[in-house]
Amino acid sequence: MPSWAAEPAAVSGRWVAYRHVARGVPPLWFGAGRTTLRQESGRWHRERESLVQYLALSSDGAWAERVRYEAIRTEARRLSDDRCLWQLRVAGQRIADLSTFDAWEACGLDPAIAVGDHADSQALASELRRARYRGVLSPSAALDHPGAVNLTLFGGRIEHRIHGLPLPDEPLVDDGPWVPAVLLTDRGSPTPFAMEHTCYRTARHRTLAEWQATRRRGRR
Amino acid sequence: MSALLAPPTLTTEEALRERVEALEHELDAAIAPYELPGGRELKHDAVSRKRRVAERTRWFERLRSEILQVARSPAWRNHDLAVELLLTLEDLRSAIEADPDALDERWHARAAMQIMHVVVQAMLRQIDHEAIDDPAVAAKFVAEELRNVDVGEIARLLGATTKSVRNWREGRVEQIKRNPARITLIGQLVYELRSSMTSHGILLWFDAPRDHLGDRTARELIDADVADAARTLLPLARGGRAQLGG
Q1: Would you say residue A5 lies in a domain?
Q2: What digits encode the pLDDT tens for the residues B168-209?
Q3: Lowest-pLDDT range, A163-167, B38-42, B189-193?
Q4: pTM, whole model, 2 decimals?
Q5: DSSP letters along A143-190, please?
Q6: Within a 10 A sphere around the Cβ of A86, how many other Cβ atoms?
Q7: What angle do CA B120, B123, B126 make, to 5 degrees?
Q8: Per the domain annotation, does A1 fall within a domain?
Q9: ipTM of this model?
Q10: Which of A24, A69, A172 sits opposite B240 (nearest CB)?
Q11: Cβ(A69)–Cβ(B246) under 8 Å?
Q12: The domain containing residue A68 runs over which residues?
């Protein structure tokens, strides 16, 4: 039985999303078998069990993920980072809308899972997959800023690299795994804003704390 | 004998790497930025169709032959990646058979080729990792990769003398007797990190305290126990290749 009291709203849509990767690494995860489909565990999947696409809905959101993962705390480290940043046009159906802490609460889910330990969100991800959701919108654990949202798509996707043109509104081929992608930089560093607003792994998530304080005040 | 008549003899490993690289170039060319085929007339013109189909057949046979050479080599014969490569070859064959006009309008052949490209890149990484498992290769690799970093800093990181690092930079690598496991681990880590940060950034990576490691640094973990450090640091460096939900 799923852990939610009410099913998360299932939304469909198109989003512009951002993702950082090392040079030489494709912007999306796909592969052919046991070795190439192996993706290190993250918030919404366990290694060897499944494959997901971690995307941020803002470029600062993507950079904050980088800052948080690498624990980048100094200007020297920020400026010596040297990454690719991709902009992607993503189309998705039946995406679980848990994009706000209010939405988590409305489903009877603990909003702290959104930004807390991965074990809880990985378990929730398994439930979402079983309920045939194809992805999840959730508050960013890394970019501690009101309204910062990540989009995670379940399953493999393949990039359709766009050169010399703006990101198209939709994929050229609409029945496959294709995601139009524009390389914004192949030698980029996280922005100062992203570093300033990153919630590091053992730190308190201020946006969640403020939301909780507002809820407590509302109950009085 | 003239030098021109005596090309350098390739070792098996070098030959194998060259073969896989050739395969990668072949796929790179095939999945070049997509351009819409010519107008309606060209798409359905019988002569154009015949030429497209013939070109595709020749290309596929060449690719198949290269893949079979790699998959049959002793190094890859029993490897998971060789199986993946052969499976994607079959996917590509199915996509081609389902597309008699050689237009690939649903991009099925293109998808198979991009997946094949990922498999080939994984093979190249595997070859590199296996080479760096040799401390002499690792020492030379780190010294070259961090060529903009002070020799003393590299020597301290590797647990070697500055004289050795200077020799390694000049390609003179003797047998590594001092700290071989440490040098190999650092070589593998530098290999993962080099596509994400500058050489100065790599050095800073080793000295950055990490909250989830109890504020310890990578260098402190390596100093304490190389084998333990490898279990923590290699997945950390690998996980940094692409964005994960934090």
Answers
A1: no
A2: 999 888 889 999 999 999 999 999 999 999 999 999 999 999
A3: B38-42
A4: 0.92
A5: B-STT-EEEEEES--EEEE--SSPPPSS-SSTTSSEEEEEEEEEEE--
A6: 26
A7: 155
A8: no
A9: 0.93
A10: A69
A11: yes
A12: 10-219
Q: Tell me how far apart the 2 most distant CA atoms of chain B are, in Å.
A: 71
Query: In the block, which residue shows the tokens 């469909």?
Result: A12
Give the position of tokens 């997945």: B235
Domain tally for chain A?
Answer: 1
**DSSP classification of residue B106:** T
pLDDT in the model for residue A63: 98
Q: Which two tokens stand for residue A97?
A: 């809308």
Residue B161 tokens, joined: 């003398």
Backbone angles phi, psi at A158, to 5 degrees: -120, 135
Q: A177 is written with which tokens?
A: 């795994």
Length in residues, chain A: 220
Handedness of CA B95, B96, B100, B104 (dihedral sign): positive
Question: At B9, is the pLDDT very low, low, confident or very high (cuts 50, 70, 90)?
Answer: very low
Q: Is A183 on the interface with B (CB under 8 A)?
A: no
Question: Which among A83, A141, A160 has the least Cβ separation from residue B246?
Answer: A141
- Sign, Cα dihedral of A175, A177, A178, A184: positive
Ranges of each domain in chain B: 12-120, 133-239
In-domain check, residue A41: yes
Q: Do the domain assignments include residue A112?
A: yes
Which chain A residues are within 8 Å of B201, Cβ to Cβ? 77, 80-82
Distance CA B154, CA B143 (A): 7
* Nearest Cα residue to A50 out of A58, A59, A39, A61: A39
**B207: closest chain A residue by CA:** A77
Among A18, A39, A80, pick the best mutation site for testing chain B contact (most B Cβ within 10 A).
Answer: A80
